[in-house]
Amino acid sequence: MATVALGRRPSVVARATTDRELLRSFLEGDRLYAAYALCDLEDREFGRTRWGIAQQGEDVVAVALEYSGMTPQPVFLMGDPDGLEAILRDVIRPRAAYLAALPELLPTVEHFYRVDAGPPMVRMWVDRSTFRPYPATVQRLLPAEIGDLNRLYQLGFAAWLPSSAIAEGVYYGIRVNGTLVAAAGTHVISERARLGVVGNVLTAVDYRGRGFATAVTGAVTAELLRSCDQVVLNVRSDNPPALNAYRRLGFAEYTRFEERLIHRLGSPWPDLAARMRRFFNRETTDR
Questions:
Q1: Is residue 286, in this structure, part of any structural domain at all?
Q2: Domain hosting residue 131, numbered range
Q3: Which of 87, 104, 110, 146 is deepest in the core (most CB within 10 A)?
Q4: DSSP assignment of 162-196
């Protein structure tokens, strides 16, 4: 009887990379889910990022992104669970992070992290063919108005959101008697990928229910669609008013994913992120 030699699958190897074209090629496989990560390949953001990839032979099977800065910062996962396990074991190892990952990847994450509870997030998207403008009187915000914007966000100190966020992004607001009561803006924009991400959507409590969030989000989206093929945003699945506001603009659900605070198992890191969690869990979850 002849003996048949069965070929072995190449082992998964994880490593860090700064090869933007390699990363872009993988992320474009699901560009609406990977929208933030694709935008982070732009020069403005790339220096703040750290990337890990997993390969089987020559094929990239998983990518992880860690956005640098004060802990906890975002970590994004995409791809094969075995590949991501290798990356989280050997390459991307934050003590604490805000995880963005599809639900089926949580068991892999739990090998290394304690995962806080939270509702699923909804990734929504729109393009020129589905966008429905919302007529309203809004104004484009200028960098000099950063103090008003931060007061609306109630973050306690103007340095939290720098004026460059307005200068480099797109922000619109609504004022009542001179006071900024609603605003929306952008997290990241990619000229190369022709993608924009809407975020920082907030209406002051006393002015909710008047369509202000829809109006400012619509203005930001309309401006982005002048140069972007798609615009995306995130919203909590347990926030029907926000979901309905975005649907009125033509946004549709693309996928649901998990955005959770995670803590490395065995790490002494205490849970000091309450203020940041409030920031991340507004009407539209922030970056």
A1: no
A2: 125-254
A3: 87
A4: -HHHHHHS--EEEEETTEEEEEEEEEEEETTTTEE
| Alpha-carbon span 207 to 173, nearest angstrom | 13
- Quick one: 92 and 180 in the same domain? no
pTM of the model: 0.85
Amino acid found at 273: A
Cα(102)–Cα(254) distance, rounded to whole angstroms?
Answer: 12
User: Considering only CA atoms, which of 103, 73, 46 is closest in space to residue 279?
Assistant: 73
Structure token digits, residue 185: 């803006």
pLDDT, one tens digit per residue, over 123-181 is 999 999 999 999 999 999 999 999 999 999 885 444 478 889 999 999 999 999 999 99
Nearest to 73 by CA among 41, 108, 99, 105: 99
Residues 190 and 204: beta-carbon distance below 8 Å: no
